[in-house]
Inverse folding.
């Protein structure tokens, strides 16, 4: 997935196998900009890294899956809650 982030922002990303409180580095950066200067990668910006702190694991909203067959008395109701890793962006190094 692609995310647009800023320093200090808290976002939920797909579940990672990391400990809460640890630091991670996300290396696949497509675009870096601060005010007047913008660097666009082809496809990635070389040397750019986003540093983040892992806050913990959260669950998303429940999604209801309902299966139904007309005139057959067939009804199945199940749910799903996706797990996410909550991170706080601490620095963007270009």
């Amino acid at each position: 997935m692609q995310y647009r982030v800023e320093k200090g922002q808290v976002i939920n990303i797909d579940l990672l196998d990391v400990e809460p409180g640890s630091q991670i580095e996300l290396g696949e950066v497509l675009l870096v900009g601060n005010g007047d200067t913008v660097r666009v990668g082809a496809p990635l910006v070389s040397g750019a890294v986003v540093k983040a702190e892992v806050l913990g694991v959260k669950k998303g909203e429940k999604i209801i899956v309902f299966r139904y067959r007309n005139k057959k008395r067939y009804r199945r109701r199940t749910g799903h809650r996706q797990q996410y890793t909550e991170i706080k962006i601490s620095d963007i190094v270009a």
Q: What stands out?
A: The beta strands are 10-14, 23-26, 31-34, 37-40, 49-59, 63-69, 74-80, 83-93.
